[in-house]
Design brief:
homodimer; mainly alpha; Arc Repressor Mutant, subunit A
Amino acid sequence: MTRAAKPRENKDKKARDLPTGIALLWGEQDQPARGPKPSLTPQRIAQAAVTLADAEGLETVSMNKVATEFGVSAMALYRYVPGKTELVELMVEAVLAGPPDLSAAGSGWRARLSAWAHLQWEVYQAHPWLLAATAMRRQIMGPHQLAWMDAALAALEPTGLTAGQRHQVFLLVAGQVRSLAQQRADFDEDHNREWGRLTSELLNRHSDRFPALTKAIADGAFTSAELDPLDFGLDRILDGVQVLIDRA
Amino acid sequence: MTRAAKPRENKDKKARDLPTGIALLWGEQDQPARGPKPSLTPQRIAQAAVTLADAEGLETVSMNKVATEFGVSAMALYRYVPGKTELVELMVEAVLAGPPDLSAAGSGWRARLSAWAHLQWEVYQAHPWLLAATAMRRQIMGPHQLAWMDAALAALEPTGLTAGQRHQVFLLVAGQVRSLAQQRADFDEDHNREWGRLTSELLNRHSDRFPALTKAIADGAFTSAELDPLDFGLDRILDGVQVLIDRA
DNA sequence: CCGCAACTGTATATAGCGTAAACGCACTTG
DNA sequence: CAAGTGCGTTTACGCTATATACAGTTGCGG
């Protein structure tokens, strides 16, 4: 994300762009009458950007690359999308289509919330760039994103927790999935092996500075795959929530 | 983060840069003998970049801005730092200086781990860009980062959990702090108010699509400040860990 | 003490980015 | 059929990281 060319009146521009960005996300755009037919749609553009990001990462998605995908110039996209930030927002919405149906996961809050987390996890796995895309500055939430949020909150309704508590639990679970996806996204086989080799060598040389870490590595804390990270974290969190419920 | 100019031999270059980057982080650089005295150090450069990022955000930190801070040209920095990614790594290390001392927090694993989380939280609060800086592609960990990790793992040693479990718990807590800092970093007073206004209007129009969300907002789930997010999440997680310990 | 080698900083150049502005042209509606 | 609107292009600007070539400074070995 590079800076805008003319930063003057940036605030005004941002403020006025917000509604149009929202309208775009909610599909509340009225199509024009008196001109040539548009050859593209914001959705088609977003879809192309998504496949591009899936293949080569978010950082290689540029207006130019997306435009050439359609055989048009980069500036042509600006007829459909206000700017790149809005395009990324559309990408997120595109990927979150198909809001989750948790009714098949069982009736308990725990089963449903767990299912929600696993579904979210799968989305992150399928589109690793989603993390970086949602990690940027405060973006507006589209309907699909809200639908996911709604599903999680709905799962928490039978718990008897207060609204504030339910919201916090939602944030907790969502954050856990995110942070785990983060790790996974960082994980690159070759690079990681090389890093591990060099770091372990350094650790040997400085083992007195990091006793607990050295011991943990010696005990195989990093190499053992006995624990599924997602389920482990989720079980701890949901156990903790259960404690809270029982206490009330 | 823009692309490199000449992507050829990128792999070779990356592989060969990794050790030099590590050497930089660990301060294992031997100073030269036969030239003009260096006017800068990697650490001073990183420090300037940190204050810049603290003031105006990570995305405005450019080689040029940092260089002019010292009154030198941008290219001069490349005498001390291989590239921008390495500079960011140095920034992270600079900010994580002063590894935590948890012995004052009490003797129990829970008190110590909780103290660790709060300290980490404060670092994120003081340097909001730290999130984005560590969220990028797999970076190598410097000694300070490892020291933080070591402290958390040390706090978990008296729990009786397996090494793998302790590692997972560490990841869980660290992730929780991260994801919470994420939210906080996204939070911008003005922008958020505007967003809330527009979104709530949209929610009113589509309340049937998001029943649980609408209800949650009506119940004040988002406006009430009764719960401290960090403590709430931490209490749930640590309760869950306690359950695991008791079960063993 | 001198010259070479090593080292620093600069100037220049390249490839890429997002996007503002102006323009020709195709098309649809009056 | 003419009007005029909206599409797509071309051009240009300011910004990014960084490769390369060079000029200036310093200290060691002969």
